[in-house]
Write a structure and sequence with these properties.
Chain lengths: 76, 510
């Protein structure tokens, strides 16, 4: 699971930093913008089977690889 | 509607003064205010004795004061150049150099000085708007072939091009919007794209000249999805204008449908390819609504062709057509010599008609290259490839050059390369689009050869990428930023010794 999420993030951000630093803020650092976020949610749906209610999507709850992994795990 | 567009808008300030023209998250302004504000600004500008006909920069975001400033400028006889408040300083400087404007109206604080250019500061503007000056000098109004607005787009050499749209270009577009789509008289139109992007013209003038209401969805709201979906049902919009990319965000929310947004009856898309998937999902959610795919470059005033996406169209076309030209316009497909191709063949899309711009501001070379005459009418060579099918629908087939659309924004890849090349840590670079299965660009990838000396101090490629992005943002619009940076020892070259972008494109997309 963790690897799948990191693969998705690495592909979308084009940087392995998301693997090196699991607490990096992907929005603050400009690694992911709002269209990238949409792609991330679609990939999480396709590859991890989690449906994230976008109306509940708070950036601050999804801004690091660690938080995203925890979210996905809790939703499976 | 052959009357002057300014008069058409002002009429509502007199006939329906209390009617709401603009709603910014609950803060509303009326047509009377729009008239009063723009009259006051026009009186002030006329007093300044600015060079006749010279454009003025209007700097700011998505606010009522912005559109009042646009209107004030054209009432005083000056075309406006909308410059977004998020623009990098260097871009503002370059636009100033190219356009040689007579003044700048800073709706938001201008973050730099522009030589000796007179600037109306936000404080001064507030003072002007508060005066009760009346302005009757309609002989000064922008009219006929005078420029109404000038919008800057990406240019291949890193220098943006200012597309001059005249009053009559805009009339041609506006008439089409008023007559062909059955818009309700008391409709409320969503205003989402920034004013520096010509898609915003699709909501602004068809709404204001018909005395209807604009309801704004600012970037701060659209960036925060939770906020976006909390706000959307409260807007009660009946017409929707956006890029398909923005619709993709909205469709992620299952309750974005006719049951929850019953007022929404019309959807207009432009700026990039509308994919079958997006259109089909939307049709499913809003079975009764009218969905239009429209097509056109900034150079021909927003859009020149449209097709209603019906169940039949979805059934027949796996890749959606871009429709048929509006009645006053001809779309011809031409070959490399500029001659119309045989029926059924593909060719470069040439647009001829009254909404075609007179060309790029102060750029005769680029103007001569793209603007021609066809059958005695002004015409624009789009660089887009098209093909007509047997039903007369125009199909989009891609580009003949390295221009791309990313989330609706038009980007010349050479422009991004140019900015990258200037970054201190970069020895050489080129940019390549990655396409999704839906033919849309999903990512922009930069291939970079580092400057070994200057880039030596970075402990990781990530840190280097951060530093490069930082430098880029000083000169380049953020929507042009590559999502991915790949560091290589050298870039592939063609037989002529040029960077072989095509081979990298193949590598990325195979």
């Amino acid at each position: 699971m963790k690897d799948t999420v990191l693969d998705i993030l690495e592909d979308l951000t084009g940087s392995d930093e998301v693997r090196n630093d699991l607490d990096i803020d992907i929005f603050e650092t400009g690694l992911l913008d709002s269209m990238g976020t949409v792609q991330m949610l679609l990939e999480l749906q396709a590859q991890c089977g989690v449906d994230v209610p976008v109306s509940e999507f708070e950036r601050t709850e999804w801004n690091t690889p660690n938080k995203i992994i925890a979210k996905v795990e809790s939703m499976q | 509607m052959a009357e002057n567009l300014i008069k058409a808008i002002d009429r509502w300030g007199i006939e329906t003064p209390t009617k709401i023209a603009y709603d910014y998250l609950g803060k509303t302004n009326t047509y009377a205010e729009l008239k009063a504000y723009s009259d006051a600004l026009a009186s002030y500008l006329v007093e300044l004795n600015l060079p006749k006909g010279a454009p003025v920069i209007v700097f700011g975001g998505q606010t009522f004061e912005m559109i009042a400033a646009f209107l004030g400028a054209v009432k005083a006889g000056h075309a406006y150049i909308p410059v977004d408040a998020h623009s990098p300083l260097e871009r503002i400087e370059v636009i100033n150099e190219i356009a040689r404007p007579a003044a700048c109206i800073a709706v938001e604080e201008l973050p730099l000085e522009l030589g000796t250019l007179p600037v109306v500061t936000p404080a001064k503007l507030a003072e002007i708007f508060a005066t009760k000056a009346t302005y009757e000098a309609s002989e000064n109004y922008v009219a006929g072939d005078d420029n109404f607005y000038i919008i800057f787009t990406s240019g291949t050499t890193g220098v943006p091009k200012g597309v001059q749209i005249s009053h009559d270009n805009l009339v041609s577009f506006n008439n089409w919007m008023q007559t062909d789509f059955g818009l309700a008289k008391d409709g409320i139109c969503l205003s989402q794209p920034p004013y520096s992007f010509d898609l915003s013209v699709m909501d602004l003038y068809p709404t204001l000249t018909a005395g209807r209401q604009l309801t704004v969805l600012p970037k701060e709201t659209t960036d925060n999805f939770k906020e976006l979906f909390a706000v959307l049902p409260k807007l009660h919009v009946s017409e929707w204008v956006s890029t398909p990319s923005f619709m993709d965000i909205c469709l992620l929310q299952p309750t974005f449908d006719a049951k929850n947004l019953p007022e929404l009856t019309h959807f207009f898309f432009c700026g990039e390819e509308l994919t079958h998937k997006t259109a089909a999902t939307l049709k499913q959610r809003f079975p009764e609504a009218k969905i239009y795919n429209t097509y056109g470059p900034t150079e021909a005033t927003v859009a020149v062709s449209a097709v209603e996406i019906t169940a039949e169209i979805l059934e027949k076309y796996p890749r959606l057509p871009i429709g048929q030209a509006k009645a006053d316009t001809t779309i011809v497909l031409i070959d490399e010599e500029g001659k119309p191709v045989e029926q059924g063949q593909s060719g470069e899309i040439l647009i001829a008609g009254p909404s075609v711009s007179k060309g790029y501001l102060n750029n005769p070379e680029k103007t001569a290259h793209a603007f021609v005459e066809f059958d005695g009418r002004p015409a624009y060579k789009t660089g887009d490839l098209g093909q007509y099918d047997e039903a007369g629908q125009l199909l989009y087939k891609g580009r003949i050059d390295f221009q791309i659309k990313l989330h609706g924004f038009r980007i010349e890849l050479e422009d991004v390369d140019h900015h990258l090349d200037k970054v201190s840590y970069v020895a050489q670079a080129t940019t390549v689009p990655r396409y999704g299965k839906d033919h849309k660009v999903s990512q922009l990838i930069a291939y970079v050869v580092k400057d070994e000396t200057k880039a030596a101090d970075f402990e990781s490629d990530f840190k280097l990428t951060q530093a490069i992005k930082q430098e880029l943002l000083e000169t380049m619009m953020s929507y042009m930023m590559p999502q991915k940076f790949i560091y290589v020892d050298s870039l592939p070259l063609t037989a002529n010794g040029k960077i072989d972008r095509k081979s990298l494109m193949k590598e990325v997309n195979d």
